Amino acid sequence: GLLPTPFWVTAQPITAILGLIAIVIFWKTPRRKHVLPSMILLAIVLVATFTYFAPTALSILSQNHGTSFDLALKKVADKWETLSLIRILVMVPSTLYLYQGLTKPIK
User: What is the pLDDT, as a whole number, of residue 18?
Assistant: First the structure.
């Protein structure tokens, strides 16, 4: 099956490093007010991803899915899905706020 782990293990640290570079570059500019809060929220999401989402997804994907229905596994998967939707609701506005702050002309 599909194992997205190699992609995310590579992509998320690169994103975090680029975020730190953005904080350094824009620290002494008015854009800092957009960069810093966005990067803090995205860092929280990154920590949640590595401590909960990735291990739980690996656990779900590594289960033997045989022919019987596992209610406990479904509960874990449902919780993961709900929390993942909340994670997206944090990531998208944070990313849009960051983008706006980095592309909007400084007055």
Answer: 87
pTM here?
0.77
Q: CB-based contacts of 61: which residues, under 8 Å, 6+ apart?
A: 1, 3
76: its two tokens:
């874990």
Q: C-alpha angle with apex 88: 59 to 97, nearest 5 degrees?
A: 145
The Cβ-side half-sphere exposure at 4, using a 13 Å CA radius, reads: 12
Cα dihedral 68, 73, 79, 81, rounded to 10, equals -60
Measure Cα distances from 75 to 37, 42, 44, 66, 78 in Å.
33, 27, 24, 17, 5
